[in-house]
Amino acid sequence: MLEYREQGFAVQLMEHLVVPTFVLDASGHVTIWNRACERLTGVRAAEVIGTKLHWSGFYESARPCLADLVLNGEDDLVDKLYLANRSETYQHGALSAENWCVLPQCGARRYLAIDAGPIYSPSGSLIAVVETLRDITSQKEAQTALETLASQDGLTGVANRRMFDQRLAAEWQHPAHLSLLMIDIDHFKPYNDALGHQRGDECLRRIADLIVSETRQECDLVARYGGEEFAVILPHADMQIALAVARRILAALKRAAIEHPCPSCPPLVSLSIGAACRSDRSVTPDALIAAADASLYRAKQLGRDRIIIGETEIAA
């Protein structure tokens, strides 16, 4: 009798917890779906108790929840199904993860911290699994914003030098073709001196947007390398692809027709572009940057407003 009362108290306690919680029995059916879980998901307990439809509170199509993975001993699926796996610090049999969930009934997208742990009988058999959830969307969004600030150039919105270095190092690990463009705005100092820093900043932003628009959105990285210099990492791109991108950038700038205010400079703002392609995996990332930089310097020497690959002038 005492054990029954204790069980009843435990169920009532779980029902009134402020933490969203649900419980599956050994067969995977929902036995508890507390009020906090109703408020989080918009799904009433009566809709899921006695069913295996607990997934419908969090996802638009059927897929395992963390409690299901505990129930079935499928720890190896956590990394596949969840954005973050925090299970390494938990006791054997319990799992912890984080994931974006769509919450179909509420029409909301929430980032949830999820914990699931087994409950065993005195004899050691699994009798239930408890899953608890915490809405940490605001923390995740704040973290994402900080990560963006850490990797983004504050003026132009493209990647900063730190992000450029990280991405180039990451791409270097893949054996595929890899090309690099170094791009410099010609005669930018007299432009800046004549019109002031605010107009100079506007020019930098406009050219950054222009470069981004002419690169492959799905894989290329445009970064502000420093001052008026930009860099474009072109994964899976041989020299022909790199050359095509560089030509598009020059053509787009000519269409933009940004007037240069200094009478001693050409009437329109132009770009010099140096290109390099990794042809040998023994070459280092620094060597690839140096090769593209040398081509850019050569473009400047030859009169600007052109593309140089090695010693070869491609376009003027």
Tell me about this structure.
- This protein has 316 residues and is an alpha+beta fold.
- The chain folds into 2 domains: 140 residues, PAS domain (Beta-Lactamase), CATH 3.30.450; 164 residues, 2-Layer Sandwich (Alpha-Beta Plaits), CATH 3.30.70.
- Helices cover 39% and strands 23% of the residues.
- The chain is built from 11 helices and 12 strands.
- The strands form 2 sheets. It has a 6-stranded antiparallel beta sheet, sandwiched between helices.
- A hairpin with a 2-residue loop joins strand 11 and strand 12.
- Helix 8 packs across helix 9.
- The longest helix has 18 residues.
- It starts with a helix and ends with a strand.
- The model has no long low-confidence stretch (mean pLDDT 90).
